[in-house]
Structure formats: C-alpha cells, structure tokens
Amino acid sequence: MSEQGHSRPVTRITIVGGGTAGWMAAAAISKVLRGLPGLTIRLVESEAIGTVGVGEATIPQIVGFNQLLGIDEAEFVRETHATYKLGIEFVDWTRLGHRYVHPFGTYGIDMLGIEFHHFWLRGLALGETAGLDDYSIGAVAARAGRYFPPQPGQPNSPLARLAYAFQFDAGRYGAYLRRLAEAQGVVRIEGRVVQVHQHPETGFVTAVQMENGDMVDGELFIDCSGFRSLLLGEALGVPFIDWSKWLPCDRAVAMPCSSAGPDQPITRSTARPAGWQWRIPLQHRIGNGHVYASAFLDDDAALDLLLANLDGRPLADPNRIRFTGGHRARLWDRNVVALGLAGGFLEPLESTAIHLVQAGIARLMAYFPSLDFTPKEIDRFNVETAREYLDIRDFLVLHYKATTRDDSEFWNYCRTLEPPDGLREKLEMFRSSGRVIREHNELFTETSWLSVMAGQGIVAGGWHPAAEILDEGELKRRLGHVRQVIAQAVGQMPTQEQFLREQGSAI
Ligand code: FAD
C-alpha cells in the first residue's frame, strides 16, 4: 500500500498476440504510461501461427490514435501503402442497381441551428431531387477521386465538414506499430504459448508458458490472441454472446488483386445474394473479400463469386476465415483484458474492428488498475464495452433489415427479421418524424444513422417544424447554393494521386 492507502499501479504487463490488436496496445500503452516507474511491457507472438491477415479499412477515430502516438501522417501513409478514405459506398444494398454513400463528416451547412437534413427532407417534398450524397463534401470528393485534408480553421468552407480515415495494408500497419513499440521499450518474445497458469484460488493468470518451457509472468495480461481467445475464453472460460441471429454472415474469403494505382478514396461494399463483397483500394493493390452466410451459400460458390468480381489479377491464394458475430460476456475478467478478435467480432461492414481495439485501449487507460484490481472499475469497463458493441451491432443490422431485396433466401431472411429494440425505436422515430436518435454519445453519429436510413430507402414521415421557417423559394435557393459550394470546393481539390505525390506519401 502507498501512503494514500491505495495499492501500487500495475507495472508488469504481458500482451499475448502480435496482430493489429497486440501491437496497437503495445505502442499506445508504452507511450501513455512511459513515465511509470518499473513499467515492463512484453509481447508474445508466434510467427508460425501468424495473424488473421485482413483488416484494412478504418474510421476517422484512427487519426486521433495516430496523433496520440506522435505519428507523422505522410510517413505513415507511405509506410503502410495507405490511401485516404472518405466513407463507404454501398452498392445493391437497397435494391439491385442502387448505390449510396455513408460519408464521414457532416451534411450541408448550418441552417438556423437545426440539423440540415430536415431542410433536405422538406425540399424533397417540394420536388427537389438531389440525394443526400450531393450535400456531403466527402461523398462528392470520393466519387470524383479527389482528396484534400479537412480545414477546421475555415468554418465557412465545406472543407471544415470533411472527415477522413485510412485504408492500409494491415501487415504493414502491424510492422510499423511494432517498430514504434520496440523503440519505446516493449520487449517482443517469439514463440507459441502452450499453457496458461492461474492462481489456484483466485484464478488470476500468473504466467503463460512457452513451447520451449520458458514462463512469461505478469500482473496484467492483455489477450490479443485472435479468435482463439487463449486467456479470456479458453483459460478463464468467459462465455461468448452469440449475435448470429441478427448478423447471419459467418464466413469470409479474402483475396487481394492488382490495381492501376490509387483510385477513389472510398471503401466499397457490394451486396451479393448471400452477403456482400468489400473492395478496398490501396496504393499498390486492391483488398477484396466476400463476407457471406454459410447457411445460405457454400464455400466454393462464395469463392467463385469473389473471383468473378475482381478488378485485377489475383495476387494471393484465398484466405478463408470463419467467425461468429458477438463478443465475450466480459472483456475484462480478473487480471485479463481482451482486445481485438479475442474479445469479440462484428463483421467488417462498417470497418469498426480496429476502432474497437483503439476504444478498448482508451478505456483500459481510463480504468487502469492498481494491483488490487477493484471490481468497480472492471465492471464499468465491461458495461461501457458491452454498450459499444451493442450500438455497433444495431447499426450493422440496419443495413440488412432496411432492404427491399427479395431476390434470395438470404435477403428475405434479413428483410423480415425482428430488429433489436434499440434499432426498432430509431426506425420508428425516423419514419414518423425524420428525427435521428443518437444515444449516449454512441460511436455512429446522426450523420451515419441518417445516411444509412435514407440510403436504404427508409422514408421519413416528416421534418422538424423549424424547416418550415424558410419559404419554398428560399429553401430551394439555399439547397442549390450548398450543392454548388460543395461542387466548387471539390473542383479545386487535387486528385488523391496528386495529393499523395505532393505530400511525399506515394510509394
Ligand atoms: P490476429 O490478427 O488473429 O492476431 C492474433 C495474434 O495472436 C497473432 O500474432 C498470433 O500469432 C498470436 N497468437 C495466437 N495464438 C497464440 C499462441 N498460442 N501463442 C503465441 N501467439 C499466439 N478491421 C477493421 O478495422 N477494418 C476492416 O476492414 C476489417 N476487415 C476485416 C475482415 C475480416 C474478414 C475479418 C475477420 C476481420 C476484419 N477486421 C477489420 C478486423 C481486423 O482484422 C482485426 O480486428 C485486427 O486485425 C485485430 O486482429 P487481432 O490482432 O485481434 O488478431
């Protein structure tokens, strides 16, 4: 006990697993806690087991993570062969032949202090035909293949409303973070963990045993061992909450292909008869994968469909992955915290997995334990984490539920499924009044919920009464002005290719 009556902070941390999750944790924790006396961080990983090898698209929160690590963006983009990402384009989700963008950033401009989309909704009723995409600088720039960084210091420019993320080579990202972490004192131990040792009474993990007999001990263990969940799932037996009823996709087959260079700064998701296909353009190749429900499509047919829909020459053998949507009932149990796939997985439709790792690290830092591991903090960590998974789940389910597709058994299942309660409430509110509910600062903002609800063809039954303040002529004039200002700003942006060259990030 210290003078204040608290036990001392944990200082000996062992991370099991060196995928994206493990190296993100190692890099961030060694940076944040660098002044802590006696801090020792070790990371155990097995080259023979390898990493999951996918995970290339991110969301804007990663920009803050990189800043925390003091990463130079131009160098980072070059090293990870990254491109910029301004949103996700959804093709054939609402109905065959339809497309819409879920952009980062916000729509329109500030209009009388209420959300822009209420004016857009009223405009539609008055015969305006422009879709929401035309009011998003991110969507318009992405489709034009252009990129320029947001300009928060110019509040009158649409560039102030832009937000961005990256698409990168996950293997290169891991290697980049490893260099950072090792430079900050993290010690890497190569080899396979064969046994997890626990205290006979408390069940706390005391050490992991390597294949060569070496023991790696620790006070706090961070389980980043991937789907196997070696410590939290296998050793501590924390059960898995299975959400496959709402998220029936349970397999993926991934395969990169050649590309002609950086193209549109956007991830594309194209709906398929029993799932969907991702397309992530990097500087040196395009990442592709087909996510599907094995109850509706067999593995060979899934691969055939992927191969038939590549833009270039295949660059690797197919990487087949099985998963279940859901998460461990507690991501922190005793002295084990799980990050990444060891804690849970929600399919990559909205590129949230790397963010969940980042959020888990931030939460672990907020509730960083003392040696007495007080249950209050641990419970709080678990409540907040479960809430975050649930919010994201509901957002993902929205994409499946709000479809008009009836051309396959899979889509019939999705269209007719009972939505979870939180999602039902959001749908009812939007349908009746055009309002978008955002709970407790959840990850996806009003813009995100709106873009997917409107994009998937849900019709709002009304708009905010204040949208009536402008007369019809003034409303249409202002809407036209917003579209024009956005189009002009995009016209002045460089292409992504030019920008990468000028920034010194092109490979
Ligand atoms: P892994 O990469 O599996 O790493 C596990 C580590 O544990 C490895 O280093 C392994 O060697 C080690 N290990 C395991 N067992 C042992 C042992 N016994 N001894 C020693 N070491 C061991 N995320 C996004 O943000 N965007 C995306 O676009 C995206 N797309 C995805 C698509 C698919 C199909 C899947 C499955 C995931 C996707 N993800 C995406 C998620 C992303 O890939 C992962 O969240 C991220 O890579 C973290 O993985 P991980 O580090 O938890 O696990």
Automatic annotation (TrEMBL):
It comes from the Bacteria. InterPro entries: FAD/NAD-bd_sf (IPR036188), Flavin-dep_Halogenase_NPB (IPR050816), Flavin_halogenase (IPR006905), Trp_halogen (IPR033856). FAD binds at residues 18-21, 193, 341, 350, 354. The active site is at 85. The keyword Lipid metabolism does not apply. Pfam families: Trp_halogenase. This is Tryptophan halogenase. It comes from Alteraurantiacibacter buctensis.
